[in-house]
């Protein structure tokens, strides 16, 4: 069977220190039929020149130089030029294992899946976190969406596009929202709602650099969560409902409200972020009727019902209860 072209889109912005490792890891892939699209998003360091140097070494590499427009804009520029029947994404400060695209491509072809997902290693300053088990499984759209929305300890199906390989027909016409962070949430949600089958590989083929200085994920976390992330989660809830899956939409809403409770505690920890904590309280109280309807469902944990009830009535008491639990109960359980 003739191999099909895989386009790999790499957004590049001021990462000269990390970029060679990233590009070389893609060039070294055991799956050779690649189109490697390096999108220099107006870098002011040597990143653009590095892209050009590697293009001179490998004719599979195409370089796009553009004005700075952010990660979404760079990925969109890559999508405009991509000609592969499958499309993958790699962030320029990360790198991938040499078997990644061969494994994901073969899984898609074998399972007749439109998306493949692999695990990833978290590369931190204190070490490497890898929870791979090494097994593979094929999931229907319904099964994969349930895992994606609700979580499952057996799988790690996350919203980030860099751990995935998409059949290009599935995402034809789809683009990332420019000027926003957490842009992967809706891109992945839309792709998953359109697919028929997903191939899951429980092996960490992707190496994700978690705490690089200067990363957009480490800057202004409060603003990013409130202005970008939370609106995208709300859009996800609405999109799933409009796609004809009201039960799954309610489950997405449940996990969204759980997330708000976690963020509330985080924001209360620092004086400068308590303004965001107040905004979360306001949003929860404005949506009290919806929350009460969803929290009557059988899929809502009993403990979560109690936590939400306390939060809606006395946010300060909820915060103190969580802190007391962390201080006294958790140490006892760990003995």
Topology of this protein?
Elements: E1 6-12, H1 19-27, E2 34-41, H2 47-57, E3 61-66, H3 71-81, E4 86-91, E5 95-96, H4 100-111, E6 115-124, E7 127-129, E8 136-140, H5 141-150, E9 164-167, H6 184-194, E10 197-209, H7 221-242, H8 246-268, H9 274-286, H10 288-294, H11 302-313, H12 315-333
Parallel strand pairs: 1-2, 1-4, 2-3, 6-10
Antiparallel strand pairs: 4-9, 5-10, 6-7, 6-9, 8-10
Helix pairs in contact: 5-8, 6-7, 7-8, 8-9, 11-12
In words, what does this structure look like?
The chain has 335 residues and is α/β, with parallel strands linked by helices. The chain folds into two domains: 6-216, Spore Coat Polysaccharide Biosynthesis Protein SpsA, Chain A; 220-333, no CATH class. It has twelve helices and ten strands. It has helices spanning 19-27, 47-57, 71-81, 100-111, 141-150, 184-194, 221-242, 246-268, 274-286, 288-294, 302-313, 315-333, and strands spanning 6-12, 34-41, 61-66, 86-91, 95-96, 115-124, 127-129, 136-140, 164-167, 197-209. The relative contact order is 0.10. Mean pLDDT is 94; it is low at 214-219.
